[in-house]
Amino acid sequence: LAPWIPVVGLEIHAQISSNSKLFSGSQVQFAAPPNSLVSFFDASLPGTLPVLNRRCVEAAVMTGLALNCSINKKSLFDRKHYFYADLPAGYQITQQRVPIAVNGSLSYSLCIDNKMSQMVTKTVRIKQIQLEQDSGKSLHDDTRSQTLVDLNRAGVGLMEVVMEPDMCCGEEAAAAVRELQLILQTLGSSQAVMAEGQLRVDANVSVHHPGEPYGVRTEVKNINSMRFLAKAVDYEIQRQIEELENGGTILNETRAFDSKLGCTVPMRDKEGKQDYRFMPEPNLPPLILYDAKSLPANMNHQQVINIDWIHERLPDLPSVKREKLVEQYGILPEHSFTLLNEDGLAEFFETVVKQTQMKPKKVIGWILNDLLSYLKQHSLTVKESPVSSFLLADLLNLLEKKAISSTAAKQVLVELWKGEGKTPLEIVKEQKLELLQDQKELEQICQAVIDGQENE
């Protein structure tokens, strides 16, 4: 039999990093008391009107430019009708017909056979990026057999990034989303913390034989972890293949990923295409953007958004940062990926390099093998590290000056992890690590290193 070809496309909802919601002045805050951040418009009281948030538009334009999209100078808002308890208006304001950005691309890298030294770069096409409202949140109380509604999230600004079906496995999907997450965080357009629901992924999965049309697809909804995304996609691919090989058929349905069981489960079918009764949003005019050429003379810059102005202020994207790390410090490309994948680790590394005489290639070993492994073992972030960049630099200076041996440096690092506020020099004295001719010479060299003096 001809092999099966899996096809994976993604729809990603990223919460825009903004102080207020997309169409109201309500504050945006994670884990606030239920229904404490709800305006009259969020609750859909009669007579309330939407007012577009400038910050949200700028974030969408910035994201579109970073993903190589064409920015539409004229985009439109639409109403998408569906009825659910956490959507009080009975419709969502979105951009169905003419979104703010179209036709982009995202390059991402992944390992071959889980080997960091063997990486391949792939590209997924971006169909569009659209602005839309988030819905509220339904809280199910099984004990009392009731559902409570929290509208704090209702109306929060979202960017929906629609990726074309250019991927073929869970690893590719996870790698693409991780790269998108890094870009969003670099831009500041979204904090993209999946654990807080700021980045939610829907995966569309199908399989077919070579030369045949795409198979019937299923949609796995609201995946909130990179690891779960990879598992959900791979499971769904295998499930569909087994179903078809056993003579079954694939239903066009929505499924959820059960992380405890490690499988996808049915939620609802899509036998008939749902009629959302899209219509133009009557309370919002077309969104008009400008560039340097089209900007009218004597226009108040506070009342318009200039695409070129935003483009000029784009920061270095993760791919550029990796290239600079490799070029500036002579580290391996795979190490640059690790530095950027951990929040704050690249900054930690560069701070240590600036304050130590040790070569960056040696520093990276201590950062990845000792610091990062300890942090992962104790489920700590870089910002929560008991060993600061300054303490690690002091320790590496002692080692580079041959005041202590590598073995002794490991012992000192173990003491530093305790977070007792001691310096490497104090620990060396306390542990009586007599590794040179005598203790007096050791103390002199250690003090010289701390003082930043040369001592031959």
From TrEMBL:
It comes from the Eukaryota. One of its GO terms (biological process) is glutaminyl-tRNAGln biosynthesis via transamidation. Belongs to the GatB/GatE family. GatB subfamily. Residues 347-456 form the Asn/Gln amidotransferase domain. GO terms for molecular function: ATP binding; glutaminyl-tRNA synthase (glutamine-hydrolyzing) activity; transferase activity. GO terms for cellular component: glutamyl-tRNA(Gln) amidotransferase complex; mitochondrion. InterPro entries: Asn/Gln-tRNA_amidoTrfase_suB/E, Asn/Gln-tRNA_Trfase_suB/E_cat, Asn/Gln_amidotransferase, Asn/Gln_tRNA_amidoTrase-B-like, GatB, Gln_synth/guanido_kin_cat_dom. PANTHER family: GLUTAMYL-TRNA GLN AMIDOTRANSFERASE SUBUNIT B MITOCHONDRIAL AND PROKARYOTIC PET112-RELATED, GLUTAMYL-TRNA(GLN) AMIDOTRANSFERASE SUBUNIT B, MITOCHONDRIAL. This is GATB amidotransferase. HAMAP family: GatB (MF_00121). Keywords: ATP-binding, Ligase, Nucleotide-binding, Protein biosynthesis, Transferase. Pfam families: GatB_N (PF02934), GatB_Yqey (PF02637). The keyword Transferase applies. It catalyses: L-glutamyl-tRNA(Gln) + L-glutamine + ATP + H2O = L-glutaminyl-tRNA(Gln) + L-glutamate + ADP + phosphate + H(+). The gene is Gatb.
